[in-house]
Design a protein that fits this description.
Elements: H1 5-16, H2 18-21, H3 26-53, H4 59-72, E1 76-82, E2 84-85, E3 92-95, E4 100-108, E5 111-112, E6 114-115, H5 118-125, E7 140-144, E8 147-151, E9 156-163, E10 172-175, E11 178-181, H6 196-210, H7 214-232
Parallel strand pairs: 6-7
Antiparallel strand pairs: 1-9, 2-3, 3-8, 4-5, 4-9, 7-8, 10-11
Length: 233
């Protein structure tokens, strides 16, 4: 279930308190909202990486990874493409989507390919009788900028990736010099409903920093820290 951007905006305004801590305009809010959403998604990826580095099979860690992956599932995409000729550097290549945030598994005939560096690929593909040579059964690939370069296989490429969340926007119309919510021109957050509170606190913090209101920033940071501590109990 997505998070309503209007609900978040109203909570942010209520906490900011127009008379005491300054008004956050819709334009400012939309900027902070998109930044907060992206930071939360990037934190998911960081947390998964950190948990996967831990030794053992601690149930708490496993549960956390499952929860994060569930939250990321709305942003996961699956691509099945025909591979273009790659020339002398490899068997083929495919251009990654512009909205890619993190590449997932790369598959050839449902076999997961191993990612290697360009130098490793050159070494493995030299005609010197290598014991391990890339084939359709032992596929490898390199990732350079926005391209996957394939070695040992051609024809098709399947891969998953986590995309950037769509740009959110609190739509509005102006009536009597006051911004009123316009649901027809509104784009909600692509985040799990559990992230509503964190969005509010992050936006408050970002607003305080950008608008040079340390009181607002400290309020958001303190609330966010309290939330983090409660989650660890």
């Amino acid at each position: 279930m997505a998070v309503s951007i209007d609900t978040v905006y109203q909570r942010v305004l209520a906490l900011a308190n127009k008379e005491q801590r300054g008004y956050i305009t819709p334009q400012e809010f939309n900027t902070f909202a998109n930044q907060a959403q992206l930071e939360i998604v990037e934190q998911y990826l960081y947390d998964i990486n950190q948990f996967n580095r831990l030794n053992g099979n601690d149930t708490n860690y496993s549960d956390m990874i499952d929860l994060i992956e569930d939250k990321l599932s709305v942003l996961e995409e699956f691509v099945h493409q025909t591979v273009a000729n790659g020339g002398v550097d490899g068997d083929g290549k495919t251009i990654l989507p512009a909205n890619l945030l993190k590449l997932g598994k790369v598959l050839q005939n449902n076999i997961a390919a191993d990612q290697v560096t360009y130098q490793e690929a050159i070494h493995l593909t030299r005609p010197t009788g290598q014991l391990i040579t890339p084939t359709s059964n032992t596929p490898i690939y390199t990732l350079i900028k926005n391209e996957i370069q394939l070695y040992g296989w051609t024809g098709e490429c399947k891969y998953t990736y986590i995309r950037r969340p769509n740009i959110v926007s609190w739509g509005y119309i102006v009536i009597s010099d006051k911004a009123m919510h316009d649901p027809n021109n509104t784009i909600d957050f692509e985040l799990h409903s559990l992230e509503e509170t964190e969005l509010v606190y992050k936006i408050l913090t970002l607003a305080g920093i950008t608008l040079k209101r340390p009181d607002l920033s400290s309020t958001g940071a303190a609330l966010l820290q309290t939330k983090v501590q409660q989650e660890k109990i």
